[in-house]
Each structure stands twice: as structure tokens, then as C-alpha cells.
Amino acid sequence: MRKIKVATRGSRLSLIQTDIAISYMKHVIPEAEFEKVVIKTVGDIVTDKPIHEIGVVGAFEKDVDKAVLNGLADVAIHSLKDIPSEIPYGMDIVFVTPRDSPNDALIHRSGEVVSPYDLPSGTVIGTSSLRRRLQILSINNGLIVKNLRGNIDTRVAKLMNNEYDAIIVAECALKRLNLDIKYYRLPIIPFTPAPGQGIIAVVAPSDSWIARVLKDKSDRYAWAMMKCERTFLETLRAGCRTALGFVCISHQSNTLTAVANVFVDEGKGIWIQSRADIDKAERLGERMAEEVKSLLS
């Protein structure tokens, strides 16, 4: 039996996501035995700063990929949104899982479903994301946004301890953790999510045997959405310091719909949409990136 070592972060969510990825890879390689290799990353260690202030590209991804490059693991598992536009030379995204919800979610300390449009001025919102900060302020600039780091369980605990009135997190994280908590699903416009949100990615050396085995075995729709969003990032070459949202949705059809959100002129939000056939996913991402570039220039 062939053993496949899988590098992953050690948070509860990361381990659950790794189990999800392994379950899909087992359909392709049923004879394999999978072993987790837990890696602590810079993003896990530095928790007192927003991600865009840490000063490391791929704060949650880089150290996990190093385990593969150093021969400690065969593949690395990531939330696709944590993978920067440039990954280590010789590595590639070789497999993705079907996409869960890409939307963000607003959790209110009252325990009820509360719309962001109903929040009074002075409400304290917790998020460390520059994108989420600007998006929520775009609908109510009277809100107070404070930094919030830590895993999902820690963030929810801080909310319940009344450190915040509401927090914004990825809906897919709440569902994967099976948290019994009410929340408001934030609409794609104006709350356009980070590229890759909702997709779990497997990264491996591009010339490895496992890359060859997994080739063309991903969910067709998730793979097209991934290619669109990655091409968008690669063309734009934007980092975590850029307040940017982009998502590509297929609705299980042969047509892709992409939405991009960028902030210009000290916080003015702009949203653009476009469509393309599923086999033109990369061209759609490239075209949208060029349009965003023109807005930023």
C-alpha cells in the first residue's frame, strides 16, 4: 500500500479541510494510505496583527509548502484563498474539491440573524481583513471596525465575550466546523469574497507521480472557478495588502459569472461583472483583471 504524507496546518478547521480533501483523493487513489503532517505557520504564530501587516506573502501557506519541498510530505492542503498568486517554483495546484459557499457571513452577538443594513452606527465589527473592513464600511461608515485574529472558534468566543457586536467570517468555515450558530449570509455584491474562498486545494510538485494521478480528476466546475480566480490574481499580481474581492460562480452550468470588487479613491467601492463559457475560464479571469487594472491606474 502506498503511503501519502499530507502537510497541513493544525487548527481544527484545517484538519477538517484536510480530511475533506483526503476523502476526495481516496476516490481517485483508493489503495493509498494517507498520513497527516502538521505544520505551524507564521500566520498561526503571529496573531496580534492583521494578515496584511505581517509582512509575509502566504502567511498560512508558505511553511506548509516547505514541508513538501523538503521531502517531509507528498502534498500540501490549503484553503485556496490562502494561496498567493505566486507559489514556489516547481509546485502547482493539482487537485481541488467541489466548492462550498464562497460567501461571507455576519454573526451577531445577540444570537439572532441580523442584516448588516440594520446595524446602528457605533456597532463594533470584528475582522482582520482589509477587504471586509472596506466592504462593511461602504454600506455604513458609522460602524467601528476592530482587528480580529485567531481561528474560527476563538473569534466566535471573543464575540460571545462581548468584545465585539458582530464579526465577519467565511460561511464555509462555519459549515465545515458544524457550528450551531445563526448568521446572516452576506450577498456577493457588495460583499464580494476573497478569490478562492470555499475551495480546498491540493498542492504538489508539478512533476510528481501524484500530480499525474490527480490530473483531470477534480470537480469540473470547481476547477474552472479555480482557474478563473487564479488567472485573475496572477494577471493582477495583487497581494494581501490590496482590498480586493473576486469570485467566479458556475451554478453547475456551462456558463461562468464573475464578480470583482476593488476600492479606489480612499475607499470608494467599484463592482464589475462579466460572463463566459466554462471552457474560457482563464480568459474570463484575465479580462476581469485587466479591467480592474484600468480602474486602479
UniProtKB/TrEMBL annotation:
InterPro entries: HemC (IPR000860), Porphobilin_deaminase_cofac_BS (IPR022419), Porphobilin_deaminase_N (IPR022417), Porphobilinogen_deaminase_C (IPR022418), Porphobilinogen_deaminase_C_sf (IPR036803). It holds the Pfam family Porphobil_deam. Residues 4-207 form the Porphobilinogen deaminase N-terminal domain. Its EC number is 2.5.1.61. One of its GO terms (biological process) is heme biosynthetic process. GO terms for cellular component: cytoplasm. Gene3D superfamilies: Periplasmic binding protein-like II, Porphobilinogen deaminase, C-terminal domain. GO terms for molecular function: hydroxymethylbilane synthase activity. Belongs to the HMBS family. This is Hydroxymethylbilane synthase.
